[in-house]
Write a structure and sequence with these properties.
- By secondary structure, the chain is mainly alpha-helical.
- The chain has one domain.
- 52% of the residues lie in helices and 0% in strands.
């Protein structure tokens, strides 16, 4: 199931960076990172790295669930 956290992260990253995240791992991880940023869990001096390692095959599996994401 693709939740709101994943949907928002996938849409934001696709729109602003042109990177397609899968909803299983990278979409969930990015959603959590965005949530942590919004909750100010990092200071301005922290260095944060999001290492995207792929996930394109999962996009095909979840294609129907992701078609409602208009970028």
């Amino acid at each position: 199931m693709v939740g709101d956290l994943e949907r928002e992260a996938i849409k934001l990253v696709a729109k602003h960076e042109g990177i397609l995240l899968d909803p299983v791992y990278s979409g969930r991880a990015m959603g959590a990172l965005i949530d942590m940023i919004r909750n100010r869990e990092f200071s301005f001096t922290d260095t944060v790295l999001f290492w995207y390692t792929g996930g394109t095959p999962a996009l095909f599996e979840f294609a129907k669930a992701l078609t409602t994401l208009a970028v």
